[in-house]
Amino acid sequence: MKTVIYYFSATGNSLYVARTLQAALEGAELRSIPEALAEGRFDAKADAVGFVFPLHYMGLPLQTEAFLERLAITGSPYIFAIATCGVPYTGTPFVDAEEILSRKGQQLDATWYLRLVSNYIPMRDIAADWRIKIRAWLAGRKLRNIAEAIRKRELHSTWQLLQSPCRRIHQEWKERRQRIDENFRCDTGRCTSCGLCQRVCPAENILRPDGHPVWQHRCTECLGCLHICPVEAIDYGDKTKGRKRYRHKDIAPKDLLHKHT
Ligand SMILES: Cc1cc2nc3c(=O)[nH]c(=O)nc-3n(C[C@H](O)[C@H](O)[C@H](O)COP(=O)(O)O)c2cc1C
Ligand code: SF4
Ligand code: SF4
């Protein structure tokens, strides 16, 4: 019984979930969505196919959507999707994924939100440590139930509230995508030219002509570069100044880097 889990993760929450499921589902294989996109690997042949990704502006991350559009799934596997997030149940990630899959003659059999920590620090600071610990405990419990449901091939649907306004917000975000990275600033006095920001970028959107990052306007706003910088040299305008940076505690920086860089 082969399971393939595709994941996208900038700060480790979704990778942690994908790895936890891999450990719980015997023989499950993990595949990185940015790497599959870069390598042109769009064939999925398995008894169960899963997708784990962060909620981005109440919908699918841009690369996850692009990947789903191109994916060719053989046969009629059990298909599940999990969106990690800070605030669950608002948005349309699963409606949107279902729409894409249905055009390929597939359907989403099971969907879940998994509340962890919001890494969207342009809006608000990272949650307090005690809150992170409680959410991690609750998420661990929910993940055990999810793994059991996947093993039993159970059907599971999830609330997706406020669909019209959420879809509008998501659409407006997509329309300003070319300008997203104009907000990034690098404090060159602080930057040590370590290159991690370039290597974590799933969109190959960072060049470092003189050692420091220069953004190339292909950003998908995953915030990987901002959070991974070990000396906090990257800010999103003034909004992130003084705010904490985040990475899931069980995920190392090297686990988030991409092969193509
Ligand atoms: C651009 C962007 C938009 C986000 N939008 C939402 C959102 O609408 N709702 C939410 O609950 N979390 C939102 N988040 C937070 C992430 O979904 C959450 O932190 C996720 O678990 C991060 O997963 P990762 O560590 O695998 O990248 C957003 C994060 C980013 C970077
Ligand atoms: S991760 Fe930070 S220190 Fe390293 S090159 Fe990028 S901005 Fe500079
Ligand atoms: S430039 Fe930064 S925020 Fe944009 S896609 Fe790359 S890593 Fe993510």
What does this structure look like?
This protein has 261 residues and is of the alpha/beta class. It has two domains: 3-165, Flavodoxin domain (Rossmann fold); 178-256, Alpha-Beta Plaits, CATH 3.30.70. It has eight helices and eleven strands. It has helices spanning 13-24, 33-39, 62-70, 93-102, 129-151, 163-175, 196-200, 224-228, and strands at residues 3-7, 29-32, 43-44, 48-54, 72-73, 78-85, 110-115, 184-186, 206-207, 214-215, 234-236. A five-stranded parallel β-sheet has the order 2-1-4-6-7. A two-stranded parallel sheet has the order 3-5. Helix 1 (13-24) packs parallel to helix 5 (129-151). The longest helix has 23 residues, at 129-151. The two termini are 34 Å apart. The mean pLDDT is 96. The structure holds flavin mononucleotide (FMN) and iron/sulfur cluster (2 copies). Flavin mononucleotide (FMN) binds next to helix 1 and strand 6.
